[in-house]
Amino acid sequence: MSVEPREAGLRTEVLAALRSTLSDTDVAGVEKCATRLQEALPRDQVADNVVMVAYGGGKDSSYTLAFVRAVQLCLYARLGTTFKLRSATNRHAGMPQAVMDNIDRAYTALGMTGDPDCEMLLVDGPVVKPFAGDEPLPAAIVDRNRLDLLMTGHRTFGEARPTFCNACNLSMVNSFGAAAAHGTGVDVIITGDSPEEQRAYSWWIRRLSRKVNPHQRRRTGPGFRGFLQDTDMIASAYFAEVYGPDASAEIRERAVTSEVSEDIRFFSIFDDTRYSSGEHWALLTELLEFEFDEIAFSFTESDCGNPTIMAHLRALKAERVHGRAYAEGLAEYVDFAESLMRVKEFPENLIEVMRQRYRGPDAATRMRAVAGGFAEEAYGLTEEQLVCMLHSPFTDKGERLERYLEAEQPQLAGQVDTVRSLLDGEGEPMDPAEAELVPRLTELTGLELSRLRTLYHAEAVQFSAKGGPSMMAAILEGDPHKAEVRTRLSPDGPEVIQLATGR
Asked: Are the CB atoms for 334 and 500 separated by under 8 Å?
């Protein structure tokens, strides 16, 4: 596509700014990558190709976007034409406005806004639309995210990864497919993963899909479409486990689209650059004006506030389930999360920023308020509802119900049998005592009666390093974001080894 002189001049300015901010090694990497990508584009005319990059708004994906934009502009400088760059952002309730602001600033700094060869998209569940940095997240997406969180959390005692990440990760894969299928589709998807990492992830997805249908011949195809089909099989099995096998509406709403071209290619930039944010600090903070917001930058994430709530949940569990101090549980999560940050090669200055937030005599109180405020703002969840989830009182036919009511809701402790009768009585008329309990139980949990009845007839999932028979456990088995930590299950109890998960 031809561009106006003003747009051509802006492209020249942006490429010069990128070259002056990137290291000499990365500038050489851009040149090398541009040559490789031109050779890999499937359509004869460079301008006929659409190249997609997923952009979550964090520090790593911001660098990836900048690098690919440099490649696009490098080809334009060489050829006078270039490919169309599609950038797609998947939104969810745990993504604070600060992330959208970072994305907006990056698009402006990279000259993508108004460039005819750039297409910036938002993916809100099944809807793909042009990016708008100030557009509120649809209420339906917030409701769905909250319900997924609660229904999984009540099955898993609020374990961080399954509670917050399972449904979110499946939604993210769906967004890849939805964005790739949008409009006339895409030809190439850029990834920062090495070929070995791509194969390992693809193998993990195939293994999970075979767990879903161990005796069925493989029905999915190769390539990206097959990957999406495999993931859809996993999503169907997972949400059937969460909502019950008859919950067709919930399962259908959370399906992973696979209506993409069979010819889509993947292109890795892994060998052309390094992702350590410490090496790209000037690019991030000066050129892209990336800001490490207190909520958006939470432990290993710089595009999601959920890890702040994960730390809050572990601290609440220490206080309200195990009778210890909130600060002790918080410190356990901070130590665990710091180890994840080091594995991911976070710069020492960012690790220290995180440490400072949780250090000092008033830090636990302050961060409790911050996390609780974000949980309510993002998901509409109160501390009372989070504490209830941590007890998982309704699963296993209310096995832990009496203990929960005695500890947290003593005014209801004498109505254990009535609560059990209410939850067990699907399809039967409620007596007045049962009907009177419904609004209170909804207030305590954030869940409607039908959801509580689903939980009542479901089993709680206990996790170990070896996984387990459920889909929740099977997904966690291959997840690297976990470690065995030392903790105590009572104030004066012995130290025990327990699996911790998070981000």
From this structure: no
Sign of CA dihedral 92, 96, 100, 102: negative
Distance separating alpha carbons of residues 1 and 117, to the nearest angstrom? 7
Are 483 and 336 in contact by the 8 Å Cβ rule? The answer is yes
Count of CB atoms situated within 10 Å of the CB of 38: 17
Euclidean distance between CA atoms 235 and 254, whole angstroms: 7
pLDDT for res 216: 54
What was the pLDDT predicted at 391? 98
How far apart are the C-alpha atoms of 319 and 312, rounded to whole Å? 11
| In contact, 459 and 156? CB cutoff 8 Å | no
Assign 423 to helix, strand or coil: helix
Q: Angle 5-21/59-79 helices, nearest 10 degrees?
A: 130
Which helix (H) or strand (E) segment holds residue 31: the answer is helix 24-40
Say whether 305 sits in a helix, a strand or coil: coil
- Provide the pLDDT for residue 200: 80
**In angstroms, rounded to a whole number, what is the distance separating the alpha carbons of residues 429 and 390?**
30
Distance between CA atoms of 85 and 176, rounded to whole angstroms? Answer: 15
Residues of the chain with pLDDT under 50: 465
Q: What is the largest CA-CA distance in the chain?
A: 78
**CA distances, 397 to each of 162, 393, 425, 428, 445 (Å):** 21, 9, 12, 17, 16
426 CB neighbour count, 10 Å cutoff:
12
What's the predicted TM-score (pTM) here? 0.94
What dihedral do alpha carbons 70, 71, 74, 75 form, nearest 10°? Answer: -150
Helix (H, G, I), strand (E, B) or coil at 488: strand
Residue located via tokens 């937030």: 357
Decide: 104 and 122 in contact? Cβ < 8 Å.
Answer: no
Q: What secondary structure does DSSP assign to 336-394, as a single string?
A: HHHHHHHHTT--HHHHHHHHHHT-STTHHHHHHHHHHHHHHHHH---HHHHHHHHH--S
Q: Could you tell me what percentage of the chain is helix, strand and coil, using 3-state DSSP and rounding each to the nearest 5?
A: 60, 10, 30
Helices (H), 380-498: 383-391, 395-398, 401-408, 416-424, 432-445, 449-456, 471-477
Torsion angle of the four alpha carbons 236, 237, 243, 249, in this order, in degrees rounded to the nearest 10: 20
pLDDT at 466: 52
Give me the phi and psi of 265, to 5 degrees please: -110, 150
CA angle 168, 171, 175 (to 5 degrees): 135
* Helix axis angle, 306-316 to 363-379, nearest 10°: 120
For 439, the token pair is 């609004």
